Amino acid sequence: MATTTSGDVLPKGARIFTTVPDLFFLPEFVFGGLVWILVASTRIFPENPLGWVMFVSIFCFIGTTLWFFIFLCGGNQSSIWPALDVGYHFVSAVFYLSASVELAYITLANGTLANSVIGQVLSEYLKIYRLDIAAVVMSYVATLLYFLHAIFSAIRWKRS
């Protein structure tokens, strides 16, 4: 009977592009980066109510980049890495969920403000409002991707 060792549980090199939980790396980059770009491109008053959203998007983007390169280089072959993989993606999913809720609340508040403004300023508020709506959608998609990655990583961890 063949046994699975901890060294062959997690993929390394180009195999990360063929395994189910690790296929989520690239969409996490894309949607997380879009949240970062969209939130950074808006002007918000009062100052910095979206600091948590920016922290989460930058933290998860950099963390996922590091995680991706560790997997790509094969530095993930000890027995602790499957649990770390689950933990990182679960924490990222919880962070993104909290950031998504805050972003949706602020977008809703900005939408009521955009409805009350008249004239030339209206187009500027509508532009910011539409960018915020796109950021909310991308943030919830990123939340879903991190959550799915955590679930499939947990399944892989339990199989090892």
Automatic annotation (TrEMBL):
The keyword Kinase does not apply. One of its GO terms (molecular function) is structural constituent of myelin sheath. Residues 16-158 form the MARVEL domain. One of its GO terms (cellular component) is membrane. The keyword Lipoprotein applies. One of its GO terms (biological process) is myelination. Its main location: membrane. InterPro entries: MAL (IPR013295), Marvel (IPR008253), MARVEL-CKLF_proteins (IPR050578). It is a multi-pass membrane protein. It is found in: Membrane. Pfam families: MARVEL. The chain crosses the membrane at residues 23-45, 51-74, 86-108, 128-152. Coiled coil: none annotated. Keywords: Lipoprotein, Membrane, Transmembrane, Transmembrane helix. Belongs to the MAL family. This is Myelin and lymphocyte protein. It comes from Parambassis ranga (Indian glassy fish).
